Structure formats: structure tokens, C-alpha cells
């Protein structure tokens, strides 16, 4: 069954199955068809997200266990709601709490689970969880032999961790081993283990297992092996087959060795009726492979498409100019992207790169004229850095046709670049990728292709989302998961093309606007889009605020802190997160905001990897910038706070209008609208963990109880989010009444003419006798005057929407205003309401 809408719940951090079950009446009244749950399987103790699974066949007792899960399912079924589970096939926790991983540590290649994880068994398993090298911690007396508190067996004790000794190294001499204190003996005993304890700092270079991105605590799982698939999906499939679970969301599908093969097996085992979506980021012009047996993606590309509606493309150049004046030089985004990718390839993923290089060199030995290592290194590096999408989808049998075409396109680009490597070396890498090698090297070439494909995704993600998007801050709303990092044009026409393609390629995909991974909440993004409408005004504000807070700028050995470019980011981030109703004199409100904002600032500085980093933090620089940020929110800094709040008000108002437009589009465009917990109200969150905070469900429930009241159209309802919630509730109920219209109805772009033609977006959905017309405002910062609740009908004088014959001369019901609307061959926007907002359904 295809959902009509989904509601994402983040379990853990206080959210349990019983608490979720208690929310079922609210979720049902909101109009949701399916609860969409974050990972529920047993994860590491204290996990805040659940993606660090330790037991894929147990429902986590920390959130209620199987009994609590069953109670929630019963509540959902009683209400007629379905359930979608977020599953994590790519990785598990590399933790002693994980019994499979622990068994591998203890027994090495003799473990039943030795092949479950993606481990290079040509060397000892590396365990990069020490604060220093093994030799150093041994010398410092930080490691010793003690009985494991859980098993009583001898183990290397390192603070609270107990690494089991392999049985052959201690059985028959247990007492002797337990009494070992001599450092030479301990070192010799360590050498007998199938693993090697090492410093976490050495992981990027020396890791012997595939990890999730650059997180050493998450080990890659070989679900391409049928036995591993069966063992890791036993409970998942049981829940699907029993009817408890109706759909699956596959986390990081691009991390798998063979995504298509995995999805085909999952579909076969889960059955044809299971709703399956995949977390995948689509590049510019990229579509999900048509032969994948899934309903589509989780919707990051939908967020990117919305920016075409809400960004003022004509003025974006002025914002870029103002930003570059603060930077002090023009910004070459292609060069910046290349620098970020090179950093990832050379440092953060050095080990993965070296593995690929060694494979290539070994294959090269079968060539009649072996190439120099440096030439092969340069060719491999350039090919990785030039890859424009997350990956290709070659298998052990080779590359599909589209993979061949993409590879050749990238190779041609690399050959024509100023950094072109030796053509012979690049051709050699290309032949390996295609499998055009000597018979003796065919298997090695297949391994190379798999490893290459599993690296391009993390390399892209960490380069763009977790580096470049924290370095280049011209417009933070565009620094979002799934967005293109390079400059592009923005237009409503482009949005219409994207939605037409979406209806063709993945009409049942999720359409998200906020997730647990987005860089900021949807309403923060909607507000920040408005900066593109008034770049000069924004630049003047930043210049004035910098001057007001100049006394907090400090000169350090490595330069000024914060620099102008840092402050540009800080003021923009603060503008996005600032609560719509926060008063400058509200000390408690400022303190609560400060706590969240400082956590974001530290993360932003470290992710940029310029003057500080997660690996080597620059405390002096960080402390100065954090003090500056703290000063911005100090109750004593009233001159700034009053100016900031007053100057921000037009952006707040226009942002709330953007929010409504964004919401209306999500609810009616092709795709299945996903509501991230609490985002039916206003979501001004920052990057995780801020975006995973639990919303105020009591307030949300109370608002919905008051839906019949006229107060939801008031100024207060705009500012609180109550208006947004009620629009969502009305549209979702309509989707339940007309599922075929929303799922299969044609997408028809509509054109506006007249005075405010550029300030309106309109489209229709039509199927058989049903028709829906959506009209919403855009780019209203310069035309919106006064209070949000004030009448604005005069703005839309002489603005009309032309209708094709299939939509014309009919009666419609506006689900927002409740009015009946009779149209001819056009709609006079002024007659709708003060905000040109309407969702019209035929009656």
C-alpha cells in the first residue's frame, strides 16, 4: 500500500513505543496514513539515533522492546494507520556490545561472523579505539589483563572496555595470563591476537575494515552475501510478513556493494505490497535507476527543487557580490569543491584510497608495461575527485550502459582538465573499472569497481555536505543535503520541469522538507531564502551588526577571530534559528537559544576544517568565536538585540509566507508528503543534534483541537505555527479522500499574468473528473507591508491565472478559506484571499 502521507518519529532521547502509541490519535486526526519510525533495533547503550545497531534481530529494550513495539503496532492498526521502518543494512556498530563484532574480535577469521563484516583479512583486524598507540598506552600503564566482567575470561582492559583474548592465547594458562604485568609479555600477548589495538588517529590510514563514511565506530556489513542478508534481516522480514510493518526505508543504499541486487532480494523477500524507499542523493539531472524495485527516494531532491520557487534568481548575483566583498575576493566554487574533495581523498579517506591504489597496482603487474605508482595514484585521485554523482552501479558482471556512459564522460572531463594525469594511467584505471583486464585479474577488477563505487559516495558527501557547505556561506538555505554546490539558475519553470519528471520517474517517493539529517529546519530555510530578495539590505545589516560587536573581535597568532566571513555565517545562522516570537528582553528565551546556537557554532567551525577540526581542535580560535556568539545573545547586548530583532521582522514575515507556500506545494505536488516530527508547526532547528529535539506534542495536539476556531487565521497563528498545522491537516485529509488524483493525476504548470505575475506559483493536478488547482505566493519580501494578518488583497490586483479548457468553467472548493470559487477560463488572484494562497478542489 502506498502511503498518502507519512509522519517521522525519532525514537530514543525519551521517545518510546508507548509514548508514540499515545500520539496515534493526534497523528490520525492530522490526516497521516503511516507512522515512519527511525531505527528501532537494539543499538549501543545511550544511542541517540539508532543507526549504530548492535543486534538487528532484537527490538531495543531501551525504547520498550518487543512488547512495547507490539502495543504501538496494535494502536496503529486500531486507528487504521500503517508503519514504515527505517532499516540499516549497510553497517552495524563496531562495538563490544555487538555480539557478532565481539565474536570476530575474539576468534578472528575462525569466527562464524568473520565474513559478515567487510574486513580485509590479509592483516589483523584493526581496533582504532585507543587514545594513543598501543605501545604508548602500554607504557603509560593504561592497559592491562583483567577478567572480563561479563564473561570472566581474560581480556585487555582499557578503562571501561574489555577486549577478549583469542582462546588459543590463554587457554591452559589462564592464571599465568591474568597475572601478567611485564610490558614485554603484554606486547607479545597482543601480537598473538587476531586484532591490533591502535590509536583512533591512525584510522584514516590503517583501518582494515570498511566503515560508514569516516565513522570508525560503524563497520560495513556484507549484505551482498545471502547468508549475511538472511541473518541480518530475520526480524525485519518477520515484521513485514506478519503485517506489523507496511514499509521499509533503506538507509544509505549507495554504501552497499550491489544496491540493485540487494533491493531485488529485499523485494523478493518482503513481497510486492511492501512500500520501499531508499535514502539516496540524486545529482543534477540524475534519476533513480529505473530497474530498482522501489517506490523512490526519501526526497532530498525535492528540497532542492523547492528552492527554485523561493529563491530570487535575478538578485542572487547581488548577494554573491556582497558575500565576496566580506570574503575579500571572488569565490571560485569549482576550485573550492575540488579543494574539499582533495582534502577528503588525501586525509580523511586516505586508507580507502590506498586500498584502491594497491588493488590497481597489483592488477598492473599483469600488464605488459606496468605503470609508475605515482602516475596511477594521480589518475585514480583525479577520477575520484571528478565524479559528479554519488556512484555508478556496476556489479561483478560489469557496468550497465548508463554506468559506461557516465564513466566515459568523467574520463573525458579529466583528460581535458588542467590537472589531467598521464593519459595511459587514466586509461588503465578505466580498463580496470570496465573489467577489461587479464583473466587472472578479473576478480581483482570486480573488487576494485565495488570499492571505488563505495568510496565515491562518502567522498562526495563529506566533501560537500560536511565541508564545503560549512566553508561557503553566501546563502545558508542553499547549503542543504541534496543541493548542488555549484552556482546554477533558479526559476519556477525549472521547478515545473522537476515536478513533471518526478511524476514520471518516482510518483510514490517521499517528499520531505525536514529530516533528521537536514542542515536546518524547513522554516529556517524558508526564512533564509528571503535574503536573496533583499541582498543589499541584508549586507547593510551585517555591516552594521559587525560594527556594533567589533569589541569582541580578537587578534590571534593565526589571524583575526572571528573574521568577517565568520560573522556573515553567524548572523545568517542566527537569523534562521531566531524564534518568531522571541523578544530581545526575554532573558530565559535568549539563554535557551544560546545553548543551542553555541553547539551549532562549534560544529560549524570544525566541519569547515579551516582553522579548527574534529581531529585537531584550535581551542584559542574556537573560544574566541564562541565568546563572540555568546555576546550576540547576551541580555546586556540590548543595542544589538533590539536592532537585530527589528531588522529581522520583514524577513520573518516573508519567511512565514514562504513556509506556507513550501508546505502547500509539498502537500499537493507529485510524491508522498513526509512530515518530520513537529514540522507541522514551525521548525527553526539547526543541524543535528538540534534537529532531533522532541517537539511540544501537547501544544500541537491542543492546536488541532482548536481547528474549528477562527483564531487559526490570526497573527498569532502565523507566528506560532498553528496556521501551518491546520493547512497541513486539511490538505492531508483531502489526499486521503482523493488518493488517485494525488498519486497519478497529471501535473499541469499554470502561468500567471499581470501586475504580480512573478510573485505567484500555480499548478494543477488532474485525473478524470477530479481537478485540483494550487496557487501560492512567492518573493513577497518587497511587497508585504505591515502585519501578517492584515488584508493584502490589493497586492494582487490585475494578476490572473490562465486555465486550460480541462480546468476552466467549473466550480471549486477552497480548502483553506472554505469558500466556493466559480471560475471561467482564468482566476483573478485578488478574489482568493489576502495572500493569494488557495488549494482548490472541484466539487
UniProtKB/TrEMBL annotation:
<feature type="domain" description="Glycosyl hydrolase family 13 catalytic">
    <location>
        <begin position="5"/>
        <end position="630"/>
    </location>
</feature>
<dbReference type="InterPro" id="IPR012767">
    <property type="entry name" value="Trehalose_TreY"/>
</dbReference>
<dbReference type="Pfam" id="PF00128">
    <property type="entry name" value="Alpha-amylase"/>
</dbReference>
<dbReference type="InterPro" id="IPR017853">
    <property type="entry name" value="GH"/>
</dbReference>
<dbReference type="GO" id="GO:0047470">
    <property type="term" value="F:(1,4)-alpha-D-glucan 1-alpha-D-glucosylmutase activity"/>
</dbReference>
<dbReference type="InterPro" id="IPR006047">
    <property type="entry name" value="GH13_cat_dom"/>
</dbReference>
<keyword id="KW-0413">Isomerase</keyword>
<dbReference type="InterPro" id="IPR013797">
    <property type="entry name" value="Maltooligo_trehalose_synth_4"/>
</dbReference>
<protein>
    <submittedName>
        <fullName>Malto-oligosyltrehalose synthase</fullName>
        <ecNumber>5.4.99.15</ecNumber>
    </submittedName>
</protein>
Amino acid at each position: 500500500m502506498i502511503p498518502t502521507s507519512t509522519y517521522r518519529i525519532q525514537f530514543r532521547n525519551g521517545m518510546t513505543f508507548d509514548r508514540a502509541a499515545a500520539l496515534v490519535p493526534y497523528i490520525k486526526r492530522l490526516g497521516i496514513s503511516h507512522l515512519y519510525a527511525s531505527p528501532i533495533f537494539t543499538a549501543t547503550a545511550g544511542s541517540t539515533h539508532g543507526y549504530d545497531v548492535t543486534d538487528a534481530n532484537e527490538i531495543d529494550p531501551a525504547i520498550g522492546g518487543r512488547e512495547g513495539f507490539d502495543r504501538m503496532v496494535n494502536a496503529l492498526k486500531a486507528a487504521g494507520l500503517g508503519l514504515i521502518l527505517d532499516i540499516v543494512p549497510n553497517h552495524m556498530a563496531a562495538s563490544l556490545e555487538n555480539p557478532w563484532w565481539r565474536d570476530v574480535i575474539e576468534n578472528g577469521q575462525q569466527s562464524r561472523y568473520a565474513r559478515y563484516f567487510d574486513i580485509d583479512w590479509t592483516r589483523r583486524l584493526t581496533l582504532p579505539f585507543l587514545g594513543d598507540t598501543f605501545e604508548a598506552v602500554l607504557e603509560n600503564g593504561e592497559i592491562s589483563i583483567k577478567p572480563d566482567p561479563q564473561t570472566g575470561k581474560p581480556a585487555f582492559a582499557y578503562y571501561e572496555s574489555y577486549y577478549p583474548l583469542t582462546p588459543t592465547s590463554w587457554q591452559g594458562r589462564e592464571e599465568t595470563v591474568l597475572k601478567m604485568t611485564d610490558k614485554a609479555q603484554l606486547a607479545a600477548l597482543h601480537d598473538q591476537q587476531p586484532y591490533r589495538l591502535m590509536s583512533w588517529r591512525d584510522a584514516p590510514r590503517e583501518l582494515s575494515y570498511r566503515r560508514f563514511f569516516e565513522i570508525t565506530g560503524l563497520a560495513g556489513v556484507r549484505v551482498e552475501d545471502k547468508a549475511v542478508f538472511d541473518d541480518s534481516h530475520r526480524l525485519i522480514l518477520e515484521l513485514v510478513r506478519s503485517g506489523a510493518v507496511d514499509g521499509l526505508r533503506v538507509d544509505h543504499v549507495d554504501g552497499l556493494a550491489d544496491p540493485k541486487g540487494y533491493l531485488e532480494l529485499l523485494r523478493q523477500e518482503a513481497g510486492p505490497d511492501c512500500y520501499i524507499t531508499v535514502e539516496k542523493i540524486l545529482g543534477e539531472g540524475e534519476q533513480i535507476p529505473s530497474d530498482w524495485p522501489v517506490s523512490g527516494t526519501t526526497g532530498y531532491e525535492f528540497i532542492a527543487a523547492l528552492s527554485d520557487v523561493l529563491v530570487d534568481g535575478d538578485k542572487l548575483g547581488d548577494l554573491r557580490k556582497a558575500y565576496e566583498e566580506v570574503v575579500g575576493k571572488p569565490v571560485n566554487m569549482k576550485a573550492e569543491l575540488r579543494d574539499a574533495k582533495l582534502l577528503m581523498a588525501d586525509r580523511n579517506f586516505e586508507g580507502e584510497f590506498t586500498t584502491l591504489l594497491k588493488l590497481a597496482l597489483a592488477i598492473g603487474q599483469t600488464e605488459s608495461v606496468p605503470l609508475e605508482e605515482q602516475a596511477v595514484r594521480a589518475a585514480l585521485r583525479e577520477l575520484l575527485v571528478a565524479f559528479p554523482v554519488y556512484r555508478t552501479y556496476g556489479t561483478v558482471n560489469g557496468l550497465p550502459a548508463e554506468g559506461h556512459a557516465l564513466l566515459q564522460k568523467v574520463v573525458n572531463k579529466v583528460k581535458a582538465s588542467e590537472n589531467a594525469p598521464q593519459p595511459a594511467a587514466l586509461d588503465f584505471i578505466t580498463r580496470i573499472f570496465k573489467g577489461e583486464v587479464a583473466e587472472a585479474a578479473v576478480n581483482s577488477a570486480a573488487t576494485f569497481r565495488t570499492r571505488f563505487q563505495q568510496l565515491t559516495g562518502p567522498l562526495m558527501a563529506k566533501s560537500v555536505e560536511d565541508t564545503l557547505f560549512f566553508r561557503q556561506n553566501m546563502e545558508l538555505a542553499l547549503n542543504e543535503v541534496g543541493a548542488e554546490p555549484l552556482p546554477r539558475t533558479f526559476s519556477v519553470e525549472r521547478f515545473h520541469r522537476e515536478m513533471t519528471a518526478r511524476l514520471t520517474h518516482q510518483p510514490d517517493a517521499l517528499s520531505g522538507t525536514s529530516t533528521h539529517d537536514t542542515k536546518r529546519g524547513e522554516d529556517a530555510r524558508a526564512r533564509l531564502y528571503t535574503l536573496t530578495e533583499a541582498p543589499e539590505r541584508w549586507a547593510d545589516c551585517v555591516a552594521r551588526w559587525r560594527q556594533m560587536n567589533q569589541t569582541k573581535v580578537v587578534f590571534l597568532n593565526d589571524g583575526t577571530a572571528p573574521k568577517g566571513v565568520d560573522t556573515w555565517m553567524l548572523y545568517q545562522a542566527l537569523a534562521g534559528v531566531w524564534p518568531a516570537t522571541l523578544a530581545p528582553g526575554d532573558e530565559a528565551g535568549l539563554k535557551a537559544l544560546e545553548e543551542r546556537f553555541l553547539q551549532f557554532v562549534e560544529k560549524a567551525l570544525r566541519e569547515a576544517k579551516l582553522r579548527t577540526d574534529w581531529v585537531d581542535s584550535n581551542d584559542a580560535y574556537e573560544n574566541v568565536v564562541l565568546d563572540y556568539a555568546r555576546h550576540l545573545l547576551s541580555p546586556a547586548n540590548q543595542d544589538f538585540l533590539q536592532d537585530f530583532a527589528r531588522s529581522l521582522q520583514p524577513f520573518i514575515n516573508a519567511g512565514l509566507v514562504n513556509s506556507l507556500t513550501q508546505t502547500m506545494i509539498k502537500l499537493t505536488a507529485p510524491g508522498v508528503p513526509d512530515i518530520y516530527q513537529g514540522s507541522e508547526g514551525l521548525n527553526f532547528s539547526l543541524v543535528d543534534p538540534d534537529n532531533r529535539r522532541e517537539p511540544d506534542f501537547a501544544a500541537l495536539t491542543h492546536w488541532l483541537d482548536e481547528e474549528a476556531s477562527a483564531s487559526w487565521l490570526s497573527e498569532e497563528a502565523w507566528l506560532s505555527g498553528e496556521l501551518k498545522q491546520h493547512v497541513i491537516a486539511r490538505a492531508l485529509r483531502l489526499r486521503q479522500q482523493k488518493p488517485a488524483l494525488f498519486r497519478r493525476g497529471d501535473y499541469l504548470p499554470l502561468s500567471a499574468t499581470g501586475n504580480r505575475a512573478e510573485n505567484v506559483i500555480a499548478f494543477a493536478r488532474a485525473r478524470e473528473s477530479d481537478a485540483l488547482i494550487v496557487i501560492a505566493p512567492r518573493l513577497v519580501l518587497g511587497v508585504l507591508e505591515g502585519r501578517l494578518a492584515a488584508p493584502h488583497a490589493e497586492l494582487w490586483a490585475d494578476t490572473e491565472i490562465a486555465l486550460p479548457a480541462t480546468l476552466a468553467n467549473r466550480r471549486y472548493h477552497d480548502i483553506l478559506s472554505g469558500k466556493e470559487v466559480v471560475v471561467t477560463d482564468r482566476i483573478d488572484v485578488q478574489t482568493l484571499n489576502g495572500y493569494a494562497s488557495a488549494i482548490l478542489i472541484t466539487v
